[in-house]
Amino acid sequence: MLRLGVNIDHVATVRNARGTPWPDPLRAALIAEEAGADGITAHLREDRRHISDDDIARLAGALRVPLNLEMAATAEMQAIALRHRPHAVCLVPEKREERTTEGGLDVARDEGWLADFIAPLRDAGCRVSLFIGHDPRQIDAAARVGAAVVELHTGAYCDLDTEGRAAERDAELVGLADGARLAASLGLEVHAGHGLTFDTVGPIAALPELAELNIGHFLIAESIFTGLGPAIAEMRARMDAGRSGART
Predict the structure, then answer these.
(1) Considering only CA atoms, which of 60, 49, 3, 77 is closest in space to residue 26?
(2) Of the residues 10, 50, 134, 194, which is catalytic?
(3) What pLDDT band is residue 96 in, cutting at 50, 70 and 90?
(4) Which SS3 state, helix, strand or coil, does residue 242 take?
């Protein structure tokens, strides 16, 4: 079954807007766990704009499902990951001025030092994932540096769908499908995420090489109207429909 990782970053965004203890990201994570999430994703950004160090410590201590720690490839973040030893570490690019992660890592450019950065995380038992585009050069480089997983960036696909640019959207989907096949052929586990909604998740879920989707902002937004548990249940149903439709 295609796994669902629920990103709880934007529960912390709402909390931090008022500087109060609520809403609590850990409570959201436990609700997501109860609703059937296969894992919890949290991005500890360098500027701490949403998730905090204390959030990571509490999540690592309380979750029964795997914790996926998203982070930049910096010495500070490496030390935090080595202290908590989450199930998975997903390395993502960061720019201070961006609203959200805008693209994938340039693994091909930074191959040498990324291999050195990944090694101690892997030795500590963390599954290391690289958040990348579907460019074959980046996928080949990800396999060489010792990552266990690649997470393909679906943001462009989702943006094109929202903008009604169907031909470009469909071409992007082909690129993602080709990238997933290449990554799987190289022995990488393949995940995908960024910007996925009820309307866009089906064709992505249909890609047979994908093992996991990570979805956050839309689920937190939808939960304002329906509650987090029902939003997760609906997303799971849409994912399952997309995956089963690909088999028929």
Answers:
(1) 60
(2) 194
(3) low
(4) helix
pLDDT of residue 104: 87
In angstroms, how far is CA 156 from the centroid of its own chain?
15
The amino acid present at 87, given as its one-letter code, is H
Catalytic residue among 10, 33, 43, 172: 43
Q: Where in the chain are the domains?
A: 3-247
Q: Please report which residue ranges of 90-210 form alpha helices under DSSP H.
A: 111-123, 136-145, 155-162, 166-185, 201-205
Residue 194 designated active-site:
yes
d(CA 228, CA 31): 7
- Does an H or E element contain 48, and which? none
Residues paired with residue 91 on neighbouring β-strands, in sequence order: 71, 130
Sequence-ordered list of residues with C-beta below 8 angstroms from that of 113, at least 6 positions apart, any chain: none
Helix (H) or strand (E) holding 56: helix 53-62
Task: Specify the pLDDT at position 101.
Answer: 56
Residue 70 identity (one-letter amino acid): E
Known catalytic residue at 43: yes
Q: Is 134 a catalytic residue?
A: no
Q: According to the CATH classification, is domain 3-247 in 3.40.640.10?
A: no
pLDDT at 246: 61
Given 10, 33, 50, 70, which residue is catalytic? 70
